[in-house]
Amino acid sequence: MKNLDSVLAAYLAGWAIFFVYYISVAQRMSTLREEIERLKAQLTKGK
Amino acid sequence: MLKSALKATILFALIAVTAYLAFYYAPIEKSMGVIQKIFYLHISCAFSAFVAFGTCFYANLRYVFTRAPKSDWLAVSAAEVGLAFISVVLITGPIWAHPVWGIWWTWDARLTLTFVLGLLYVSYLLLRSMIEEPDKRALFSALFGIFAFLDVPLVYFSIRWWRTQHPQPVILGGPGSGLEPRMRVSYLLMWGALTGLLILLLSARYKLEALRASVDDLRREAEVR
Q: What is the pTM of this model?
């Protein structure tokens, strides 16, 4: 089928953008959770 | 964590089903052929981007009047998610245009205004990264976000107001417009699935902003001690 490769490229590009964005949000959340744990431990130690 | 992973899995399965419908259930359009299948993703992402930017506009207005930090969190989350959706529109558009128009891009009103829309929300996020003081950052970006949203109706109505290379509206385009029933079903299901994705991304991004606020509070507490 003519242009099927373009259609597949468009859909793959679309899903890739969403996937990468979701992973980036998850990674940033995980970094912040670690920071919260570290700060909480620091504050508990200081008491 | 497991719950959100489950939600994401269900959603991605739903999107896969709708993509299958777009490819195999919806008929092949006569004049453009198989390349028209990009329509289902392209248009659904454009409408989802408008919903995200509309949410950002509402949250920005709310912030200006209430100064509630949660409105600022929602605004930045919606702006970033909207930018992801409009990026898909700006990438899938030229892939569709090339075999149909013979060119990847033209500076007509619809395409230019959509490109400007993307740039405006990139600027919104850049502006936020440049101001350190939280209240000032939230207020300045809210005002800029309200201004940026003015481009959304211009994008939507551009093909009605001006002659453009971009096709005239197929959905809500008045007499003579509309979709073949199987195409309509595929399109509506795709849009529904992408709206689910929009909600998932928005809620994840909002949680991220809430975590960032908690980190700031804990840092301040640590500094005081």
A: 0.92
A44 part of contact set with chain B, CB < 8 Å: no
C-alpha to C-alpha distance for B37 and B49, rounded to whole angstroms: 19
What SS3 class is residue B101? helix
B61-66 contacts at long range (C-beta below 8 A, 24 or more positions apart): B61/B142, B61/B146, B63/B138, B63/B139, B63/B142, B64/B139, B64/B142, B64/B143, B64/B146
Instruction: Look at B92 and A29 and tell me if their CB atoms are within 8 Å.
Output: no
**B82 lies in which domain range?**
32-224
Residues B126-141, mean pLDDT to the nearest whole number: 94
Task: Specify if B8 maps to a domain.
Answer: no
Q: Do the domain assignments include residue B11?
A: no
Residues in chain A with CB shorter than 8 Å from the CB of B91 are 10, 13-14, 17
Q: Is B174 strand, coil or helix? A: coil
Residue A37 lies in a domain: yes
Domain housing A32: 20-47
Domain contains A10? no
Locate the chain A residue with the closest alpha carbon to B81.
A21
What residues have CB less than 8 Å from B16, skipping those under 6 apart?
none
**pLDDT for position B59:** 98
CA-to-CA distance for B215 and B54, rounded, in angstroms?
A: 28
pLDDT of B144-171, one tens digit each? 999 999 999 999 998 888 887 777 777 6
Total number of domains constituting chain A = 1
Q: Does A12 touch chain B (CB under 8 A)?
A: no
